[in-house]
Structure formats: structure tokens, C-alpha cells
Amino acid sequence: MIVCSCNALTHHDVEHAVEGGASRPAEIYAARGCRAECGNCVPGVVCMLREIRDARRAVMAAARRAVMTTEAAACH
Ligand code: FES
Questions:
Q1: Would the pTM of this model clear 0.90, i.e. be above it?
Q2: CA of 65 to the centre of ligand 1 (A)
Q3: Nearest Cα to 29, choosing from 8, 47, 52?
Q4: For ligand 1, atom 1, which residue shows the shortest CA distance?
Q5: pLDDT recorded at residue 70
Q6: Domain locations in the chain?
Q7: Looking at the predicted structure, is the pLDDT value of residue 76 above 80?
Q8: Considering only Cβ atoms within 10 Å of each terminal Cβ, which end of the chain, N or C, has fewer?
Q9: What is the pLDDT of residues 12-33, one digit of tens each?
Q10: Alpha carbons 46 and 42: distance in angstroms, whole number
Q11: Cα dihedral angle (51, 39, 27, 10), rounded to 10 degrees?
């Protein structure tokens, strides 16, 4: 799905940039070698950035809980 029509930036591009360490909209555009032009997409990019970050935190928290549960079970 196209997120930024000025730069043909897709949802996948945003995810890929975040996976590569982008944490700000400018870094997401830079990962594709572009920058915001009209700016209409920036609020959506910020929202996607937060959603991806929140999802990653949830996965990390679940992984930590699983490790702690496994370690606790190993102690008994
Ligand atoms: S739609 Fe992204 S800069 Fe214009």
C-alpha cells in the first residue's frame, strides 16, 4: 500500500526502514533516498512508526515473559 504518493513510499518501505533503525519520519524517507515533499503523508508515517514500535515492544515483552517462564520452570 502506498503511504506517500509523492515518493511512492509503501507500508513495506516504512517497516523496512524501522527494521533498519529509523526512528523518525525523516529517517524513514532518507532510507529510500527521498524526503517529504508536500508533507501530507507525515502524520500517517508518524502513526505507522508508533504502531510498528509498539508492536515490536509487545513482541519483546512476550519473549521476555516466555524466557522468564522457562527459567522459572527449570528451577522447579
Ligand atoms: S504524500 Fe508524502 S510527501 Fe507528499
A1: no
A2: 40
A3: 8
A4: 4
A5: 85
A6: 2-74
A7: no
A8: C
A9: 999 999 999 999 999 999 999 9
A10: 6
A11: 60
At residue 35, does pLDDT exceed 90?
yes
Q: Which atom of ligand 1 is nearest to the CA of 39?
A: 3
What's the grid cell of residue 66? 516466555
Q: Which of 2, 7, 29, 34 to mutate to test the pocket of ligand 1 (most atoms within 8 A of CB)?
A: 7
* 6 three-state secondary structure: coil
Contact by Cβ (8 Å): 6, 37: yes
- Per the DSSP assignment, residues forming a β-bridge with 4 are 9
Q: Which pLDDT belongs to residue 45?
A: 95
Place domain 2-74 in its CATH homologous superfamily. Answer: BFD-like [2Fe-2S]-binding domain (1.10.10.1100)
pLDDT above 90: residue 72: no
